[in-house]
Amino acid sequence: MFSLLNLQSLLGLVVIVAACWGLSENRKVFPWRLTLGAIAVQAVLIFVTFAVPGSQVVLDGINNGVKGLELATEEGTKFVFGYLAGGAQPYPVQDELALFTFAFKVLPLILVISALSALLWHWKILKWVTHGFGFIFQRTMGLGGASALAVAANIFLGMIESPIVIRAYLDKLTRSELFLMMVVGLATVAGSTMVAYASILAPVLPNAAGHVLVASIVSAPAGVLLARIMIPETPGQGGAVADYGSALKYDSAIDAIVKGTADGLMVVLNISAVLIVFVALVALVNVMVGGIVLFDAPLTVERVLGWLFMPVAWLTGVEWADAGRAGGLLGVKLTLTEFVAFIRLGAIPDGEITERTRMLMTYALCGFANIGSVGITVTGLSVLMPERREEVLGLVWKGLFAGFLATLMTAAVVGAMPAAIFV
Q1: Partners of 297 in the beta sheet?
Q2: In the predicted model, what is the mean pLDDT of the chain?
Q3: Assuming Cys at both sites, which of 8, 104, 402, 418 could form a disulfide with 226, CB separation 3.0 to 4.6 Å?
Q4: DSSP 8-state class, residue 233
Q5: pLDDT mean over 106-128
């Protein structure tokens, strides 16, 4: 049975698409087929995941593969950093979640992915995979092989690891394809963080792992759609007619691993530095305005954004009584990363917000679209493609807007579906 809340979510879908169209570089071109197709793909994926018996087994298998890569990386990290990276602890541990450290759990994965990608390229495996993805996405969404692979990689990897996978093709991407890759990277999350999010939400959200995994998957077509609306592809460029030839070569398997690791290290160092600065800047602003008291609490960037995002949260299908709390979570995600927002969502006791609100916020928060990620995107892509740094700088804020709306679009699609399928 459909309700007013379902219609509320449908209204949110219309508003989100219209907002991106309003900022389009070519409003005369609107991808009607892609719009209907992307929404249909999202709805079908959600339905198949939660309503078809046995489908969860497939998703579990994919998740286990990503987890295997993470565990393998963890072994190398433990060897170097010991208990700091999750090894044997010298003291009793009272909070297992406190052991998750971004520097030791997420950043090392970039090194492994970079080295592995270079090795697979040297063995020509990645080349054939790219052509395979290119064939599928050229037929379904009009993407070229390189951008198609980047979109697929972004579902389970991160916004910097996926460009590393197609590093050989970055200089061949059109402006529209570059923007699309950035948007999808900001609209999804890495496999290395999915497990952490699921563990945070497991005590308060039934089937939390399934929701987190599906959230990252179904936000990819949303990111593709909104990116194509804002910066349409120029006819005759990109897609099936793109030239993805590359002269990238390695002398041997060892050479590929060494050079791939070196490339990944440069990305890791830049990401670490920018994250520290951006989080510190938000904290600095909070200190500066903290003397202003409104409604019996100090003013903060997060509170202001929470008020601004109340109607935005409502458009996803959240009841108005929960819109203030939900808007605050969206503000935290935008300023202090989705990881902090997930922690705060998991800390809200049962009964203070509805189950529907908690589920919709899980989808709305599940993406890297935050201010800190702007710095990560710029520095990461600047290392990988320094000749296009100015172009990246010109697109990144538009990418943040589209990536943020892509996760809201996913939440709205979930909110528009009958609640019975999630039981």
Answers
A1: 294
A2: 81
A3: 402
A4: P
A5: 79
